[in-house]
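Morning F.,

Quick status update on the modeling queue. The single chain you submitted on Monday has been processed. Sequence for confirmation:
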Amino acid sequence: MYKIHRGKFMRKVLVVFMTLLIISSVACSQTLLFSTVEEKILVISGDYREGSLTVTNNADKDFQIVTFRRYYVLDSNNDEIPGITLKVYKPDGEPLSTGVLYTYWRSGEERQLRYKIYVNESVKPGTYTLFIVLWGFLSSGDPRVIQIPITLEITDIPLSFKEAFVEVKERSITTNHVLNGETIAIYSTVHNLKNSPVAINGTAYLERNGKQYLAKYLAMNLTPGDNLIQVEIPIPYDLPEGEYKLIYKLEYPKGTYLFSKAFYITFGVDLTSISLEKTEIMEDETSTVYTTIFSERNIVINHTIEVYGVNNNILHNTTERLEITRGTTITKTTIPPLPPGSKKVMSKVSFGKIPLGQKSISYKVFAYPRIEDVTYKEVSLNKTTGVFNFSVVIYNANSEEVTTKLSYKFFKFNQTLDKGSQTLILNPGENYVNIIEDLPIGEKIFYEFSLTSNNKEQKISDSLEITPPIASNTTTSTSSTTTSITNTTTPLPTPQERNILKYFAAALVVIFLFLLALYLMPTSPQKRRERPKPKRRSPLGRFKRPKRPETREYKELPKK
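Structure tokens below.
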């Protein structure tokens, strides 16, 4: 019995001795440091991370067997910290606590090391070093200690925000120049480091002068790994042109991501210039206006031409739908003949009720001077000829002086008596021209007056017949006179003088009518005069004094 127990004891001592011998030999052997392709492992506090490391055999030896022995974590002070658990897996996915990890690992060869790391919430965020300890055995059986140091970063921030990307959706380009009607598309990627969803809220809007426009709100749960977030902001056509700032914000309890970018928003259609074919035309001519429009887009717009006269009274208005393409478009619009005076042309472009731009230009419309009336009166007569004064009234409807040419002609059926012309500078309003002619008596005379201005001619013609004077009984001596033709132009009265004459004549008419009314007014009959009553002299009433007796005296006795 004693021998049996002694044999068992000796076997146990031998195993312990051999184990100590192996440990001592490994401890005395050279320690090798193997590197990994990955720089670090990032783990969220209170969560886990699993993945694989690419480990390179940096030794100049080939290993027949490599076993996983243990791991430990050190902080920056080289103190080992608890709360971190590492699980290692074989290449086939079988968990491994200790034992053979690789076989036949050649020098310089890379192997994958699958892992799963648990980090307790008690571990403070920071940077640590994880050491994975392996034993490698050479073909000779000699062991080597292999250590794989890995940077381990512990954080309590589960989300990692990547830079946002913004483009114009319709054009698929990145630009800060956006057209009304287009859409600003915002793309951002958020990586969730946790192995469970994380709730997040977001906003996107345009800001200008402290005011928000077109705000978009979102709320979502981000799944583990990468999450693509897309937000679209359609730009309405009626958003005023100007510079705006895009604000994009993502928020969750552990942090906030903020992105901003400046944009200039415009409709993309500009009325660049307006011009006229002529800046001075006559009243019977049309005017042509040219409008130049530059566009960054293909669109249908409204083009309006308005013409204003004095006191901004609108004289002409036309609107057309205009289809324009990218680039420059020149439109041609005809304005009909308009009354004389200065005119202002307004060219406008709009999209619906949204004004896009306007420009104006001015031109003048001149009226043709015209002959309003021709009268004549006799100046003197003799037996054969008569001197007549022809008065021509010419009206200039313009607000400034006009140069014109007046031609005249006096003739009989087979003979031209006189003709001539005058170049006149007409004042605004009525102008008077006197022409004195010596014409034969007793014949029918024709006359014609023509006014030429800007290659347009106006003619007035008529005839007259001068009756010879009636011969008187008394003999009168008549001196012979020489027929002469004299053309004179009377000085033109000013408008103020004509107004004074009109007022004076009106006053004379009023005075005459007043006196006529006084003369025709019926006179009222005179009041009958009454004799005053005599005063009463007696209380008895009136007293009539008796007549005295009449006595007759006879010179002869009465006859029987």
